[in-house]
Amino acid sequence: MSDGTDPSVPGIMTEQTSTIETLDALRGFIHTTLCDKESLVREQFLMSETPLVLYGAPCGLQFTIRGPRSIRLSAVWASDPNMVYFYDARGERFLKVQLKNRFEIPMATAA
């Protein structure tokens, strides 16, 4: 992955490119990235997944982790631009990842 900006600077969003191969690998990457953002133990916090639909057609997935003290972290994978947007506990975007490989949204998820 290639960094676009310095992630150690508060309020600065980082941009990256990723060659993730599968939808399951994408889920793992998102879960790890969100947990690392707030120093959460990955095994202790489950991630939910919600399909996003536009005009009746699946257009992406929203991933959410609910942590302690009402912390809520999320990521949105927009399938058309094939981009993942990560949001911190304040709702501010902290990372944008351009995916090189495309994934299909499973019909069971999109229904």
UniProtKB/TrEMBL annotation:
It comes from the Bacteria. This is Uncharacterized protein. It comes from Caulifigura coniformis.
